[in-house]
Write a structure and sequence with these properties.
globular, GNAT_dom, Aminopeptidase, 340 residues, 9 helices, binds coenzyme A, 16 strands, alpha+beta, transferase, Bact_Acetyltransf, 30% helix, Acyl_CoA_acyltransferase, acyltransferase
Length: 340
């Protein structure tokens, strides 16, 4: 749980991941805070020293803050927060100008809103934006936020938007038009679907003997012993992955400061749409939040689609760590987590 906010991070959405700020994010945050374009409706760009202090405070104690990063390469694109500022829970968001106009903020905001309502079904979430901030208003209205009056603050007319449960759907592509896949921690209502999907994908691929099939199906145990993520599309679980932190039960080969990705599976009918990419991006973001320096995983020799995915994301073979289980050769891949 994000301290001071009800969001459970990280979250994946479309082409972005929303995670807690971590040490190393400061330079990107400073660029955001000093930008006169980003802060046009927030009182103007901050002075560099003030911006750096604010950025350092955010990475040291991220109370309610989040950063929006690219699912492709982990670059920090923006930031935001969810807090109680004037009564109800309220969120804000900002993206560096070079990433405007691509629907990336919509991806992030949709995930935040849907995740909020999953945890706090009875609360409303509000957003306040200057009346003159047409770009922000278009984003909120495109997502289904309902205008709820104006008021005067900081010498300008402010417009309040309300988002009730159901106003924004995870299944709604919004203005971005991109497949609105969301990745989040599994809950007790989707854990069984995650287990069934994993078993089925591995069985069809020929990677599951009877004993391993039972283990793959048992997502409840994985949810207790590790972090079990699900990819959700149109309210269906279409992908899942397990992330084991170092020293935990399901970490088979991870060393200190490494996390281990396990049992990655995407339903056949949605492959090639970035679901596997987003699942991995969320695992990497969680590892980054935890201050780890690398991610490892074991894969079988004929998991060719997976090998391409790992390569594309900067995973490299760690030949010296290859191992065998029963009669299967396991190939080990490793990816360092850069701290900036
Ligand atoms: C490996 C696996 C998880 C990949 O899932 P996926 O959702 O298809 O992965 P992605 O969509 O992110 O990437 C797959 C391909 O789609 C392409 N792609 C991704 N997003 C895309 C988009 N928006 N538009 C067009 N193409 C896209 C990628 O470039 C990639 O191309 P490639 O096949 O040439 O490498 C899936 O194939 C699977 O479940 N395999 C069986 C189980 C398995 O091997 N698990 C790994 C265990 S170690």
């Amino acid at each position: 749980m994000l301290e001071g906010s009800p969001l459970v991070l990280p979250l994946g959405a479309g082409r972005v991941v929303v995670r807690r700020p971590a040490v190393g994010d400061e330079d990107a945050l400073v660029r955001l805070f000093i930008s006169p374009e980003v802060r046009r409706y927030l009182g103007g760009g901050l002075e560099v020293g003030v911006a750096r202090k604010r950025a350092e405070r955010m990475t040291a104690v991220p109370s309610g803050d989040f950063v929006i990063v690219s699912a492709m390469d982990g670059a920090v694109l923006g930031s935001g927060d969810v807090r109680r500022k004037r009564g109800p829970w309220e969120f804000s968001y900002q993206l560096l100008p070079q990433f405007w106009g691509r629907g990336l903020a919509s991806d992030a905001v949709r995930a935040v809103v849907v995740a909020f309502h999953a945890v706090k079904p009875d609360d409303v979430l509000i957003a306040v934006t200057q009346d003159g901030n047409h770009r922000s208003r278009a984003l909120l209205e495109g997502l289904g936020a309902v205008p709820d009056g104006t008021f005067e603050e900081y010498g300008a007319a402010q417009r309040r938007y309300v988002l009730r449960r159901g106003d924004v759907s995870a299944a709604d592509a919004g203005r971005s038009g991109h497949p609105p896949v969301t990745v989040r921690l599994a809950t007790s209502s989707d854990v069984d679907a995650a287990g069934e999907l994993t078993e089925q994908v591995y069985r069809v691929g020929g990677w599951a003997g009877e004993a391993y099939a039972r283990e793959l199906r048992d997502a409840r145990t994985r949810m207790r012993q590790a972090l079990l993520y699900v990819a959700v599309l149109d309210r269906q679980v279409v992908g899942t992955v397990t992330l084991a932190l170092p020293g935990t039960r399901l970490a088979e080969i991870a060393r200190d400061h490494e996390s281990e990705v396990r049992m990655l599976a995407v339903a056949e009918h949605v492959r090639g749409r970035g679901v596997g990419t987003l699942l991995l991006a969320v695992c990497e973001a969680r590892s980054r939040e935890a201050g780890l320096t690398g991610v490892v995983l074991s894969t079988e020799t004929d998991m060719h689609a997976a090998h391409r995915l790992y390569h594309r994301r900067g995973y490299r073979r760690a030949y010296e760590r290859d191992w065998r289980v029963a009669d299967f050769d396991m190939l080990v891949y490793h990816r360092p987590i850069p701290s900036r």
